[in-house]
Amino acid sequence: MSGTPKTHEVWITGIGLASSLGGDTAAHAHLFSGDPVQPCVDGTRYAPYPVHPLSDIDFATQIPKKSDLRQMEDWQRIGVYAAGLALADAGVAGNGALLDRTHLAVAAGSGERDTKVDCEVLDRLDQRGDAAVLAKEILPGALRPTLFLAQLSNMLAGNISIVHNVTGSSRTFMGEEMAGLAAIEDAFRRIRAGQADIVLAGGALNAEREDLLLGYEIGHNLWRDAHRPVWARAGEQGGFIPGSVGAFLILESRPHAEARGAAPYARLAAFETERTGRGPGDVTRALSDLIARLRVPIPTGPLPVLSGASGVAPATDEELSFFGTLTARGRDPIVRAYGSLIGHGVEAHVPAGIALAALALRHGQLPPLSETDDIELPLTGAVDRVLVTAVGHWRGEGLALLERISEKAT
Question: What angle do CA 353, 41, 172 make, to 5 degrees?
């Protein structure tokens, strides 16, 4: 065989997005109106740690059976709900023949702990010092089997399949922000290679959990003060503000989308990932290498960027250094850190950033400025492409380039 293998364009044809700002894409449309947006932040419930809480949504609109809702924890409800939104938005929901061929790529954590049971074990440890025996005594009666099984990460994909009848292949990825990168990359590369026509990809996080906050605080990753935008936090020892987020995308090959008359939001033109050791300068070097690996021409001049920066130091400062290298190459990054608005969604953060970039291309606007200094600047001119950066708070780097699809292409 000779020649270059044929690759397919990857289109985004459906978006399901739920965050502190709203329960669907329509609720996020005000991000692209040009008006200021006030982030929704709860600074008292888990003080001193602020959290972006999930907006008040009705899960039953996408998970109608009460029995399904009962056996899921909140992080699964958020994910199943957002997945249903994406399927409906793309015109896939209810189409049995299409759902049979829709594949799943899901970024998931390891589920939620039952803090009441944990506290019972710890309280009893004051009286008896045998933790192993105590666990065997308490856990069998305290944890229902269905609840325990629901803590497995692949149960999120399983519940999406059951509730929404998505019966193609299913892959689950764990590993915080890297999981979100891996889920989108898996879907992107399979479609490009002709191994899949349509994939539902995304992730979910319930940030309103004491066990989750404890884990991240032990690693010195959380911001311990009133809400401040991402870039402001990086300069003051850093830290991220978690946000409850569900973000799913329908990624589809262009021929498949055109054949069924699907209207695309944007083209996912390139996607590259990396995982460095996070030594000094590693993030800047990784992002510089990744933009070279995109292999898609990026014109000089203004370049809209949706940054997935967390605010954790020193990684966030190193991402700023990367923007400086872009300027030196004749590109003028017009940056927005979307974590300033919806919080840091960990597994769901990359899918959320790509969803927001697709919406920015649809509306022809970037989200509003969240800074008054020289980091986030006004955008003049059209939004024809958006670069999405992903720098995990601990590991995982990636870049995605989205492009507007001209009317001639559709």
Answer: 40
